[in-house]
Amino acid sequence: MRLSEDKVRRITERLHDELVQRELVSYKESRGVKPQQGRAARVKQLYDFIIEDLKREEEIDDEVEKVLATYSREIKGTERDILFRKHKEEIARKRGYII
Q1: CB of 75 within 8 A of CB of 83?
Q2: Domain count, the chain
Q3: Whole-number Å distance between alpha carbons of 6 and 8
Q4: In sequence order, which residues have a C-beta less than 8 Å from that of residue 64 and are 6 or more positions away?
Q5: What pLDDT is stored for residue 9 in this prediction?
């Protein structure tokens, strides 16, 4: 994964807090749930979603690398970047995934 789990966790916490601060989301805590427990549970759900999303993208990247490895000549530089992006978009679209 390109991002460490710690970095993803910090991004997730910041994303959650920013959404709440801007009042783009609001939560009503269940009875008996302390505010920090509710926040921790929501951050964990966001974290799990982001991790799963990053894993899917990594799988797509691996598949693109396999496709590029089948080319008869070595692809370098800008051409490789363009082909990588093209194949990644194509594979993602076939899987119903939006990049």
Answers
A1: yes
A2: 1
A3: 5
A4: 84, 87, 88, 91
A5: 96
**Domain presence at residue 37:** yes
pLDDT (0 to 100) of residue 31 = 80
Length of the chain: 99
Sign of CA dihedral 75, 79, 81, 84: negative
Per-residue pLDDT at 89? 97
Q: Which residue is it, tokens 């490789």?
A: 80
Average pLDDT of every residue of the chain? 92
**Cα-trace Rg, the chain:** 19
Evaluate whether residue 99 is within a structural domain. Answer: no
**Which residues neighbour 69 within 8 Å (Cβ) at sequence distance 6 or greater?**
none
Question: Which pair of structure tokens corresponds to residue 4?
Answer: 């460490």
Report the amino acid identity of residue 82.
Answer: I
